[in-house]
Amino acid sequence: MLDVEALRGEALRDIAAAVDEAQLEQARIEWLGRKGPIADALRGIKNAPPDERRELGLALNRVRDALESAMEERRAALKASSVTARLAREALDVTLPGRPRAIGGPHPLQLAEDALVDALHALGFQLADGPEVESEELNFEALNIPADHPAREMHDTFFVEGHPGYVLRTHTSPVQIRAMRRHAPAPLRVVTVGRVYRRDDDVTHSPVFHQMEGLAVGEGLGMQHLKGTLYGLCRAIFGQDVRIRLRPSYFPFTEPSAEVDIGCVFCGGDGCRICKGTGFIEILGSGMVHPHVLREGGYDPARHTGFAFGVGVERIAMLRYGVDDIRLFFQSDLRLLRQF
Ligand SMILES: [Zn+2]
């Protein structure tokens, strides 16, 4: 005689022990399937004594119903817990702050360049541009630096292999010639800024560096206009109280020429190590455009005069930000760059 109660107990334990749908399905096949003990027992009823058949049939049906509803409950419970587990696993805390993204900033040379160009924009200068690979004619001859001129040696030029007559420009001045030839004869005020190349490399020189240069051509322009422009430029860069000083100097492409000093930004003019006790720091070269250069640009020096000035962007950045080694600007060291 089949122990219906024992079977029921064992099946219920199996159902309760199922930890997922697959195990539950396995239990269903084992206990309620066509080859399971209940189906077996139901098929065997006909062999039981006639007075027990009805009772046994009822008992087996009750067990089957009980197991089916136990399975239904277990299935619902498993489903609920898997949803809960999944929710827990995929929880998203929308109140957490976002991950910070590293955003770059302008390079200190770019900042200095922008400040210089902005200051000249305000004075009516327009941006002009030229190539970094330049003809020797524009880089030297047109700027009154003929082949035998000693200034050529100072420029420590990079020549372009396989292209005689071409150099990496040693200054931004050839853009002056380009701008004059493009715009003559109208009054002209241009600013140019860009990379220039010379073969030297130490704490204050780099083989590639940046220059900014301004040029004005018109009728009746004199040193006073140059000085006024330089005042405006230096005030914009170093503050309203800046003092400037022009010293006579020599450049092939200007006559007369002047080097321009500003009152030392480190000691306020009292004299320090950086200004070597003079209270002044040299920042740029300037002068009245040489007649030869005006002619090369398409102007008649009898009618038009002009002034020009050039400044090293690195020099301005070093003074403005207190950086004492030019090479730091080219090393991409984030410890430096993050300070700007
Ligand atoms: Zn000083």
Q: What does this protein structure show overall?
A:
- With 340 residues, the chain is α+β, with helices and mostly antiparallel strands.
- The chain folds into two domains: 4-89; 110-337, BirA Bifunctional Protein, domain 2.
- Helices cover 42% and strands 19% of the residues.
- It contains twelve helices and nine strands.
- It has a seven-stranded mixed β-sheet with strand order 1-4-5-9-8-7-6, sandwiched between helices. The chain has a two-stranded antiparallel sheet with strand order 2-3.
- The radius of gyration is 45 Å and the shape is rod-shaped.
- Bound molecules: zinc ion.
- Residues 264, 266-267, 271-272, 274-275, 279 line the site of zinc ion.
What distinguishing features does this structure have?
340 residues, alpha+beta, BirA Bifunctional Protein, domain 2, 7-stranded mixed sheet, two-stranded antiparallel sheet, 12 helices, 9 strands, rod-shaped, binds zinc ion
Under CATH at level 1, the class of the largest domain stands as Alpha Beta
Rounded to an integer in angstroms, the radius of gyration calculated over CA atoms is: 45 Å
Topology order in helix (H) and strand (E) letters? HHHHHEEHHEHEEHEEEHEHH
Annotated CATH homologous superfamily of the largest domain: Bira Bifunctional Protein, Domain 2
Sheet bearing the most strands, described? 7 strands, mixed
Distance between the termini: 92 Å
User: Which secondary-structure class do the elements indicate?
Assistant: alpha+beta
CATH-derived architecture of the largest domain: 2-Layer Sandwich
Query: How many helical stretches?
Result: 12
